[in-house]
């Protein structure tokens, strides 16, 4: 789709790529204020779950679940948050966010207060991406 930042995100941010799954892409969020924060977004431009046929919808939910399970295994958070909004970027995408009781916004939503983005070194991004990708490759 023209002018959809999610449609081009996989090509625009190759250094953040975690995995290409059957129906979706997984990228590590550049801002790692919440360690492990990833995006899961559909390969095709779609805005609503009900726009998908039942089998595709179920498969995408399983992919989201696999990413959450991998994040849980790597980061051992207190909770995983799942955000599927699409108001600002109307392309189906989930924010999968490991949460810890020690994070400054706990237990509030990640959007409740602004924060300074936490940028990592290229090696630290690669380490996180590889750890998550390794678990996803076993699914």
TrEMBL record:
Pfam families: HIT. InterPro entries: Histidine_triad_HIT, HIT-like, HIT-like_sf, HIT_Hint. A motif (Histidine triad motif) lies at residues 91-95. PROSITE patterns: HIT_2. This is HIT family protein. Residues 5-106 form the HIT domain. GO terms for molecular function: catalytic activity. One of its GO terms (biological process) is nucleotide metabolic process.
């Amino acid at each position: 789709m023209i002018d959809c930042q999610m449609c081009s995100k996989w090509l625009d941010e190759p250094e953040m790529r975690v995995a290409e799954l059957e129906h979706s892409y997984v990228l590590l969020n550049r801002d790692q204020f919440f360690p492990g924060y990833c995006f899961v977004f559909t390969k095709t431009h779609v805005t609503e779950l009900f726009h998908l046929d039942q089998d595709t919808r179920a498969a995408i939910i399983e992919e989201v679940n696999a990413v959450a399970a991998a994040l849980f295994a790597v980061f051992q958070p207190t909770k995983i948050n799942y955000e599927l909004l699409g108001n600002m970027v109307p392309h189906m995408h989930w924010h999968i966010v490991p949460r810890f009781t020690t994070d400054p916004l706990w237990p509030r939503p990640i959007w409740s207060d602004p924060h300074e983005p936490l940028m990592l070194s290229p090696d630290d991004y690669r380490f996180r991406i590889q750890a998550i990708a390794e678990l996803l490759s076993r699914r």
